């Protein structure tokens, strides 16, 4: 996302570096780097996480060599051996959307627990993908759907439909919901979860950072407009005005573009009065 410079109170140099890593990781399909960027982790922490993934993967491969199925080997190592499972008690805690915290606590939201399964599975040469069911992220392992949040249980097609129905009551099931998702999709979903959590905690700085990273991955009109409105609310009129102008220019015929054009003019007039 094009920006108008660093905002010292809200956007640090490390945030700017994380934003660039996030953009590159999404383009290249680098899941671990994307997860690190979302949390803003330094490289040395990423190296330690990569070491742990490799160590877990060695044990998974040993299990497969001993005759276990890929799913059973992952369950044996990640669940039975390591203790990884979903956090039911504090589901919406921000820590459940941060990779280092999930590694530390071995608890997290469905998408973060699934992300660890994907990292370890791929390091073990297992055919594993993320599956973005509405309301509950799972994984596909060699054509079979598995739920890492609930200790790697198998999910039938009917169970997948039931999970989707809970998130979208009355909406017909769409087979596309079982299709593999990209690393970019995973990042967007994690950031939306994180946004919900930090908003509940009324952490404005974290809301701004999460929303700005989301706009990096998904620079659509609604997301950019929300970011511009938040920048204005937090007193950074220069950033807000720049974003409003961008939205008005790029989305002329959309409602957001029309709102942004009016807001840009309003901020310009306000700035003249104050100066």
Shape: elongated
- How does the helix and strand content classify structurally? alpha+beta
Radius of gyration: 21 Å
Which bin fits the share of residues in helices? 55-70%
Low-confidence parts: 1-5
Order of neighbouring strands in the sheet with most strands = 3-4-5-6
Order of helices and strands: HHHHEHEHEEEEHHHHHH
Number of domains: 2
Quickly count the helices.
12
* Secondary structure: number of strands: 6
> Strand portion, in percent?
5-15%
Mean pLDDT: 93
Distance between the termini: 29 Å
**Largest beta-sheet characterization:** 4 strands, antiparallel
Short description:
This protein has 275 residues and is an alpha+beta fold. The protein has helices at 13-28, 31-39, 43-65, 70-81, 99-105, 110-123, 157-167, 183-200, 204-217, 221-233, 237-250, 255-274; strands spanning 85-86, 107-108, 128-131, 138-141, 144-147, 153-154. It folds into two domains: 13-183, no CATH class; 220-274, no CATH class.
Written overview of the protein:
This protein is elongated. 62% of the residues lie in helices and 7% in strands. The model is unreliable at 1-5 (pLDDT under 50). It folds into two domains: 13-183, no CATH class; 220-274, no CATH class. Helix 1 (13-28) packs antiparallel against helix 2 and helix 11 packs antiparallel against helix 12. It has a four-stranded antiparallel beta sheet, covered by helices on one side. A two-stranded parallel sheet has the order 1-2. The chain is built from twelve helices and six strands. It is an alpha+beta fold.
């Amino acid at each position: 996302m094009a920006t108008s410079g660093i905002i010292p109170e809200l956007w640090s140099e490390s945030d700017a570096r994380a934003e660039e890593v996030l953009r590159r990781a999404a383009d290249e399909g680098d899941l671990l780097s994307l997860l690190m960027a979302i949390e803003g982790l330094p490289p040395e922490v990423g190296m330690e996480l990569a070491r742990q993934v490799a160590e877990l993967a060695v044990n998974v491969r040993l299990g497969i060599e001993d005759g276990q199925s890929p799913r059973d080997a992952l369950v044996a190592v990640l669940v039975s051996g390591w203790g990884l499972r979903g956090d039911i008690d504090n589901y919406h805690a921000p820590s459940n959307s941060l990779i280092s915290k999930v590694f530390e606590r071995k608890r997290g939201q469905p998408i973060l627990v699934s992300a660890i399964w994907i990292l370890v599975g791929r390091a073990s040469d297992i055919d594993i993908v993320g599956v973005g069911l509405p309301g509950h992220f799972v994984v596909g392992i060699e054509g079979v759907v598995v739920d890492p949040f609930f200790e790697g249980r198998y999910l039938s097609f009917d169970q997948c439909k039931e999970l989707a129905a809970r998130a979208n009551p009355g909406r017909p099931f769409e087979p596309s919901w079982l299709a593999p998702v990209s690393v970019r999709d995973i990042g967007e979903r994690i950031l939306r979860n994180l946004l919900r959590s930090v908003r509940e905690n009324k952490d404005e700085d974290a809301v701004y950072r999460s929303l700005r990273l989301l706009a990096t991955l998904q620079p659509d009109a609604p997301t950019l407009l929300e970011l511009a409105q938040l920048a204005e609310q937090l007193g950074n009129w220069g950033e807000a005005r720049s974003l409003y102008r961008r939205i008005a220019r790029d989305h002329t015929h959309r409602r957001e573009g029309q709102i942004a054009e009016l807001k840009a003019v309003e901020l310009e007039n306000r700035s003249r009065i104050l100066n």
